[in-house]
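TonB-linked SusC/RagA family outer membrane protein
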Amino acid sequence: MQKSFTKLYAPWSVMLLLLLWATSADAQQLMVSSGNTSREAGSVPLQQMLANLETRYGVSFNYAPAQVAGKFVTNKNTRGKEADLEAQLRKTLLPLGLQAVRLSEHDYAIRSADAAPATNIKAAEQIVKGKVTDEKGNPVPGVSIREKGTNNGTATDAEGNFSLKVAGTNAILVFHYVGYQAKELAAGSGLLLVQLSPEVRSLDDVVVTALGIKRQEKALGYSIATLKSDQVNTVKDVNVANALSGKVAGVNVRSTSSDPGATSLVVIRGQSKLDGYNQPLYVVDGVPIAPAVRAPKQPVGQVVVDYGSTISDINPDDIASMTVLKGASASALYGSRALNGVILITTKSGSGAQKGLGVAVNSSALFDRATLFPKFQNEFGAGDRTGSDETISEASWGPRLDVGTKHVQWDSPLDANGNPIPTDWVSYPNRHKDFFRTGSTLTNNIAVTGNNKDGNFRLSYTNLANEGITPNTDLKRNTINLSAGYTLHPKVRVSTNIGYTKNTSNNRPTYNRGSVSSIVYTTTPNVDIRKLRNYWIPGKEGLQQFSHVPGSTDNPYFVAYELTNGYNRDRIMGNVELNIDITKDLTLMARTGMDYYSEYRESKRAFSAIKNPNGGYGIETETFREQNTDFLLSYKKQVNKDFFISVSGGANRMNQSGAGTTQKTESLVMPGVYSISNAKAGTVFNDSYRFTKRINSVYGMGQVAFRNYAFLDLTARNDWSSTLPPENNSYFYPSASLSLILTDMFNIKSNILSFAKVRANWAQVGGDTDPYSLYNTFGFGQDWGSVKRATIDNALLNNKLKPLIATSHEFGADVRFLDGRLGIDITYYNTINKNQILRIPVTMATGYSNLLTNAGKVGNKGIEIGLNATPVKGAFRWDLQVNYTKNRNKIIELMPGITNYLVGGAEGIRFQVAEGTEMGDMYAQNWATVPDGEFKGQPLLANDGSYQKVNDYVKIGNYNPDFMVGITNTFTYKGFTLNLLIDWRQGGKFFSYVAKNLLSDGRTQTTIHGRDPQTGGLAWNDGTYNRTDGMILFGYVEESPGKYKLNDVVTDPENYYGEYYWSFNSRSTFDASYVKLREASLTYNFSKKVLGRAPINNLSIAFIARNLFTWTAAEQGYDPETAMTIANGSFSPGVTSWGLPYTRSYGVKLGFNF
């Protein structure tokens, strides 16, 4: 391991040495005419030069035509060598009596140079005063004012007034306020009256697109969505994928658990692949990384462990933006891996930071409380059945509690003869809450930035310490990230980004049967769970646990502390990128990037565990490495005043490799000695795997822009995949998109209609399969004593496989009104996936159970609507964002001769599809019904009054929502900002195995009815005793052929609820609709006036919360969002099975700079 990491670090270390802070060489200056209108030989109009800079740097210049008319610039063999845009503008404009003022990140205004040139003599300090108003002349409080290039700053008071001591009259003040364009002004010597202009959103915003290329959003012919840094890390989640929930139209995020380290599944524009893997590709700083979702593990025994998504290794504090490429046109350039969409993550860098050194500190503390539980009953205690004297049981059919009686129970003391003594029969209604603790996540981040004219860097360190709500579960993470860039030559720039993450945990939460949740939830009401904390029987420590149901149920604290599943993961991600300006129009980008992780997992099972009475031990290792090397040659040219063209071509080589080993035993010799060497002879299971994969690709793209209002984009890519047969391993896919800015096309100048754009696109994307899917080979199985066994897959593999093909088209419009105060974006899409690679059942006469082949065509179509509005402006401001998503999919065809296909299953639920059905359909066995007559469709019972099952499976629902809505409200007043995110999902179903289990064993309030006369029980005789707990199942019994009567057979509550709930899963299937207050934050930014002479800047404190409020349509105490179980080595949405309870999180965040 150490040797491997040394090899990995070596190239990065060399790169860092090249990026050491150094002084820059003087660049030749751009020669310009000195303000006269005479034109020198080789000169170009100033207006043309500014247009070239707009194209090259992705910025926009605002100026009056008269300002630049008749002005020319010349180029004496040094054109384009200056890499710093602002420096180049100064050298170009000052001799012309002009200056460029930066309004926002990508917008500049050209105006007269009203400040005298700087001299080498330091100007005297002075106090500058002024007032800031909005476009209507109203004062604007809370405006941030900073002296450019320093940490010196202040903010306006309630009347918009400010006062700030600056270096002198030449100092530049930067004014910034949310919702308004940033403004820069010279301090001067008089009173400053500053008027801010509203920010017209996204008219010329620059966004990151495929391959890391920055484009103007208005030029895109497809829909994308971008989250800025504050949208990701204000209310931070341990898993950054969860930051997308409720914020992006078309994106459905499902978490496997409420534990912060749990896996999250992200689906963009619906499920399209029948093999179940519908996760997007994640790209960090232009480099694809490892698949975010891995198979859960079943290490030793019956429990399953989720070791989390690898995407959670990305530190939220290091993220500058997240961009979702939804459709095939947006993601086509990433090839087959982008079949399910792409999420681009851009990390922070030192570029754009203040000159010199700066330090930023951010700390947060978030606390988790389990708040949503099933509606447990606390009126009846343990018992196998009503009326029974057996009161030590897992079931809750025992005598009524809290009525002054005494019974023998689990903790009864023994008399002199060793007989248990009856004790008070009382309830403990908080038993489940008493077990779970308050979880916490403490995050501390410090980042150091440096910036000068030649280079920049950002070095960040983050420490995360999480303690779960389950005792003895934790997660620790340390992250170091370095971003650096350096201008080696005016035409040559090099940059790198390297991140290292270390994850460790002594114990991760478990799921399914045998987990602590299953034990706590099934603990009977008469058990005080706190008495189980001392989980060893005195005198038998390390040998025998103390349990409330000996022999059948583990002590939950014993499970938490003695059946542990620890792991550690080392991960390094990084890239080196070189950019060369070959000419002013031709550039070359070359890049190589790597993602590598190594994970070690260790599971321990103490003696006396129910499933491992002789203990157990297991170790697993897993390594993964992916390297991407690519280049892109780009040519951009403003052909004339009407046409702009951009053409790019490139190639990529992706190499993947991975390996893993497993060693485990379910029987140890010595208790408490956790080593494979301590395994009982003949009980060790060994397994290993190794794989490699390569994809070679070439691609190209071109854009034609006409008068900056019509944009046509074409792309093409060809992949060669090592996982497909030679005759089919090459697949080509193109795309085309068109964007028209109608307001510019028809020269619409209106305060009502600010902006109008329509867009359309068409694209194809190909897909391959897993390595080694072409030919059947033998593998080693578990040894049979001393005999080595070889096995072969029960699937017949196929060396004629073809690539999967997805074809998509999309139409959309973006319209904004009232100077950008109201905007609506609407998108319609339709995608068809064909040639899916599936395992189709075949007759066993072939010697195989299924065949790997191309089959299936799945369609997805839907609509996405985004609404942006500013209902209130002024001292108090209200910003509103709403996104709406509705997706429908359909199985268009399977394969000739195949009427239905079993996608998967869990806990008696089948996920199967047939032509005309939908992905996500859930099927279960149903009860027999009356076939005809007046009672047709009613339950048909057997003569003994019990339900009868039918063999056919019937649809009981679909786990996908009918639609999703996200609503973000931001309220700003003075220094306060209140942000509320509401996440609403309507429709869909989920099956709860937990509910089925609790209902059938008398553990919830629903099962109280009928237990005694007080609760509606009927008088009856069971053949031996007279009882008063009778119940009658509703249904009809066939008296004679074709004649039915209402059932009148009496049974006891255990059989009644067991028949009603345990036998039929549809009765534990609920509406999955919910509304959550997903995020809430109240932030106060301290002004410089408040801070006084304190050596810190930009101090803010925020009160933060997640899932502060939840409404569920089911109202059963189960969280539909985490309706996820783990079966057959994969996650199955739509089914809950002994996961952790729903949690509410709240805390505080502090940030400042110095």
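thats it. Confidence is low (pLDDT under 50) at residues 1-39, 76-83, 115-123. The chain has three domains: 30-195, 287-353+360-369+439-920+959-988+1074-1153, 994-1058. bye
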